[in-house]
TrEMBL record:
One Pfam family here: Nucleoplasmin
Subcellular location as annotated: Nucleus, Nucleolus
Location of region: Disordered: 111-132
Protein name: Nucleoplasmin-3
Summary of the function given for this chain in its UniProt record: Plays a role in the regulation of diverse cellular processes such as ribosome biogenesis, chromatin remodeling or protein chaperoning. Modulates the histone chaperone function and the RNA-binding activity of nucleolar phosphoprotein B23/NPM. Efficiently mediates chromatin remodeling when included in a pentamer containing NPM3 and NPM.
């Protein structure tokens, strides 16, 4: 699934989250962050806000864009685990973020694992007694 959002002076943050009762694994990959029409020649800093392994909120800047020198940044599918918030920490934007959202259903993974283990069992040669 494709993801897209825009951060502006009036909408400084966007949160991507999934249903807590969803039993699937979710991966959010950020591809491109770019300034769009109407952007001023000022520094626009985009942060990713998430939680660390101790469940503490952390904010990490991922892009510093300026119209005259770096209006676009490719993040090469920077992978994140939802929930995650994108925040315009400095500047007035507009900054557009694009990426993709992948859903991995756990029952699909377990079925694949079962299929692999059956194949592995079939490929093993029979056990022969040791020679004396």
């Amino acid at each position: 699934l494709l993801l897209g959002c825009e951060l502006t002076a009036s909408t400084k943050s966007y949160t991507f989250q999934v249903d807590e009762e969803d039993d699937s694994d979710h991966i959010l990959a950020l591809s491109v962050v770019c300034l769009t029409d109407g952007a001023k020649d000022e520094c626009n800093v985009v942060e990713v806000v998430g939680r660390n392994h101790e469940n503490q909120e952390i904010a990490v800047p991922v892009a510093n864009l300026k119209l005259s020198c770096q209006p676009l940044l490719s993040l090469d599918n920077f992978k994140l685990q939802p929930p995650v918030t994108f925040r315009l920490a400095a500047g007035s934007g507009p900054v557009h973020l694009t990426g993709w959202h992948r859903i991995i259903h756990r029952e699909d993974v377990s079925l694949e694992d079962d299929d692999l283990s059956e194949e592995d069992e079939e490929e093993l040669p029979p056990i022969k007694p040791a020679k004396k």
